[in-house]
Amino acid sequence: RAVATGALVQVVKFAGPERLRRFAARVVGAVCRAASELEPAFLSYLAFHAQDDQAATSLEDLRLGLATSGPLAPCLDAALEAAKDCPSSKTGAQIAHELPALLRGGLATRVAACKVVAALCRASPQALRSPRSSGPNNPSFSTHGGHLLVLVADLATAEHLHSGGSSSAKSTAAGRDAGRRHLLGALGALARTAPPKATRAVLAGLVRKYRRAGPGGDALRVKVASVIATVCRRASSEVDAEAWPPLLALAFVARHTPFHDASHTPGCSPTQD
How many CB atoms lie within 10 A of CB 90? Predict the structure, then answer.
């Protein structure tokens, strides 16, 4: 795999966007998978022997740095640039089809996939929309687009999010937090692109998840509230009137509820959001 990936990086480097365009979707999938598959083994060893949370967090930051700006990053950027210049939305649709499996991968693969989601929403939003949309003023998400929105929201609120490649419970917790930050970024990009119907559906699902959190479920409620806040901030102009009543009721309850586990979920402050 290492030899094949190294050869792929060199081919992409010198191929140019014209030659690469036809294979962009396959390159994106291969590079995202390679981000976790070729992660240096010594990182897992160090994570296993991490003595405290600070050391585990530093290791996860190192893994994130390799995933976002390591030797594979230019290759992924070139493939995304080639896909963006493609006159047809077919390439974007192929990438969208690959994304659910990539988002369920290890930490490095998931972080790379989140970057792809954001790039796709920014450069090729039509790849996530149904060809049967009634026009630019009334778009609808394709099956892939709707699935991605729900999947990213579910992963961002998951209690046990696999960090990939780490045997240490401490490192896994740090990896979950790091991966969740990238998932929230991808979710924001999707929410900005999503039509009102898809946004309303995912918000309704998040409200149900918040309400189902039982005794001792403060950590889950904090995650869900943070995800709801992300969707509302990014898609406020697209959220129709039917979605707001349950959200406002939930926001009132959350604001007046002490969240004892909130300190364990960095970046989440539902009573403020």
Answer: 12
